[in-house]
Structure formats: structure tokens, C-alpha cells
Protein: Insulinase family protein
Amino acid sequence: MLTKRLISFFFFFLLVWTSLARGAYSQPHPVYNLATSDMMLERVSSRITEFTLDNGLKFIVLENHQAPVISFVTYANVGGVNEPDGKTGVAHFLEHLAFKGTKQIGTTNYQAETLVLDSLDQVWKQIKAAQAAGKEEEVTKLQQTFKQLEAEAAEYVIQNEFGQIVESFGGVGLNAATSADATTYFYSFPSNKLELWMSLESERFLEPVFREFYKEQQVILEERRLRTDNSPIGQMIEAFLDTAFTQHPYKRPVIGYPEDIANLTRNDVQQFFDTYYGPSNLTLALVGDVNPTQVKQLAEVYFGRYQPLPSPQSVTTVEPVQTQRREVTLKLPSQPWYLEGYHRGGINDPDHAVYQIISAILSNGRTSRLYRSLVEEKQVALTAQGFSGFPGDKYPNLMIFYALTAPSQTVDDVAVALNLEIERLKTEPVSEAELERVKTQARAGLLRTLDSNMGMARLLAEYEAKTGSWRNLFTQLQAQSSVSAADVQRVSQSTFTPENLTIGRLLPSS
Structure:
């Protein structure tokens, strides 16, 4: 049980850095041949409608009338990679504040509240200036004033009113997530509450009020302490990414550095929102018991209120080609873990499908090569996993492998065993039987997603934003089906090289 908790704990921290788990655990796979799966996917794609409002906001609608429910995803094409230097964590901070309400929701008197919020900001600036000048007595007085203003502001707040409205009308699953690549907001409603969603969600990003800012700042700092500062695994992941990347913002933690979080202001969040939450940078996906014509009519009424804004600048920093092996070792109170990462292309790379197949061959559950070799046969590890697309996949990223060392074994034993399996991919063609097995698993995985309104909504929005068209979700499956043993060997030989390798070792401190 302890081992299972350790494995789950490590995998949780990896998921903190990514938006989706990729090939982590094995599940029973129904058998789908290529012709059958293509027919099913064709039927699904034929039920998808898309339209773009005049202001640039994109909608994707998938009809699924099996149950009177609609799942909604608002996909903001902005994540940790888009943050200005010195302001890491602002994307995640904004996600938290997006639940605080608007000028109409979450307040008893916005006009009075906004005056207090402005005063809070002014006193906060004065506190920072006094601290920088070493004026301790002035700091103490200002902090007292700040606490009084916070108490006054709290009197106007209706706690979680947005969530209460959603829940009272049958909404479920209200949540959000920030990754390196994007920020997503999602929940589901009964299908007769489509217009209510239109009203709430459009209002939410039309006139958000970032109230309770300083309270939430402390919440996020505590979240950072739990996830990273007080966690050996969290520290290892942060150090590993900082070593693997030298220039690209994938090297930075999505939650942000503590000094950046502590120094963020409401104005910083507002500027970030104004830059990246324009309609042309948003994609909305609706999947379920919905009429596309009605969706478009309501979207024009509610979301048509958004003013068009210039599209934000994309990330232009390119990670230099790695030319020599990199290593990072931490000694902390922890079980020994071993990590390896190799740079690879992003989601639009021509070999993206090949990387997905390679990841499945090595890491897809108990039938994978790493599990069979390192855990069952050599018994050097208690678990051996990996996935492609870390910490995101919009830009060139990492294929990562990790293992928890077995008792009486060392991380060096794990490294040797892992290297043997990687070398096999470079020197021995994958058998047709094994290749077909992982392709079947990939098809089954996507087809299972079709049974989930929310899962499908998230994927459609993600592929639209990252690749330029939701249709690439389906063409990617076709690309995987075309991957050959020669492709696997070719990409393995070019990717799994000593100079492209980053190693991380987490060793017990005693």
C-alpha cells in the first residue's frame, strides 16, 4: 500500500505540470479494427458544427442526444509559457480569481466595494515601499490599515456566489485547470440550462472583478509550499525542468516562483487578462444534448458583446538544441527516484504520432516494455512509467521516463535497465504484433473518450487551439495507424542520443 501511494503521489505531481495524463495506466481495451473505428469517428465528426463570431470567438458544438446534459469548456489559449519574466504564476492566479464573480455576481454593492479594493491596492504599494526602505514602524501601521480595509471589503463579498448559482440550477463539475500551454474552465448543465450558461460564462469573462486578491495570494503561496517547497518530488520536478530547458519558458513552474507570486498585483492580473482573454484567444466547446442553431443564436446575443482585440503575441523563444548530457541530483527525505528526459518536437511536429506510439510501446501499462523488464523481470524498480509531451506539447517538449527504485537496488541499476530498453528500440525493429497492439490501444482510448461529453469537449477545444483545427484530433489517430516499425526505429535513433539526455536523481538524504 505504501508503494502504491508513493507511485500515485509522484504521478500526481507530474500531472500538476501537465493538462492530461498520457498513457499512464493500463486498462482493458475493447478491440476496434481500423475500418470500424474510422466509421465511428466519421459519424462523430459529422455531428460537429463550428462557427466564429464577428469578434473572433470560436465555438465548436458536438451533438450527443443520449442524455439531457451539456458539457461546456472555455479554453483560453494562454498558460504558464505566456507569462512575463518576473511574473510567473499569473496565469494560475487569474484562474483562481475567475471564480470570484463580476460587477453583478459575488457582491452586495459593487460601487462601494470597488472603492475599498482600490484603497487596498494603494496601501499594499505603500507597504512594499516602506518595507524596501526599512521603515518597520511605518510598515506596522500600514499593515493595520490594510487589515481594516480587508475586513471592510469582505463585508461586500457574497462567497462563491458564482458556484452557488451553477449548483442551484443543476450544474456539476465546476472547475478549472492551468497548464503550461492553456487555461481551461469547465462544468456541465442540464440541457435546458443552455441560456443560463451563456449568460454566466459570458459575464464571467466580460466584466470579471478580481476581489479577495490578497487572500487568494496567500492561498496560492500555501499551495506552492505544499506542492513544491515542502515536497521532495515537487522540488525534483522543478529542478529537472530547469535543467532540461535553458531558454524556453517550459523551464518555469506553472504555479510560479514564490517571490513572483508574492509580488503580483491586481493590476498585473488585469493586464494579463486584457492581453490574453480577448475573444480571438478563446475557444468554447459544447458537447451534449444541444441544438447548434440555438447555440449560435444565443452566442451572438451573449458573447457577441465582447469587443474584438488584437491577437496576443505567440511565444517566440526557441530552446537551443541540446549538445551534451545534463544531470541534476537532489538529496532529500524521499524514496529514490530516477528520471530521464529527451527533447522532442511539439504537437505539430511531423513525427508527433511516432512519438505517441513510442511512448505507448515503452510505457503503456503492464504490457509495456518498461514495466515488464524493469518491474517484473529484472525487479530493479517498483514502477516504471513515462509519457510524451512534458510539461506541455504545444511547443517542443520532453519525452520523460521515471521509476521508483526497488529495495536493495540503486538508481544506477534502474538507469542501466532503462537504457537497454531504449537501445532495443534503436537497434531492433518492433514486431508487427506489438505495433498493432499499441495502435489498437490508441484507437480504443479515443473511442472511449467519445463516451464522455466533457472529455470530448476538452479535446476538441485543445486541438482547435493548438493545431488550428479540431479535425486534427481525428487525423492524428489516422497518423498513428500509419506509423511503421521503420518510423519507430528512425525516430528512436534520432531522439534517444546521449547528448539529448537529461537525467534527474532524487536520492534519500540519509
Q: What stands out?
A: The chain has a mean pLDDT of 92. The domain at 25-41+340-379+406-494 is CATH 3.30.830.10 (Cytochrome Bc1 Complex; Chain A, domain 1). Residues 393 and 456 are 18 Å apart (CA to CA). The two ends are 23 Å apart (CA to CA).
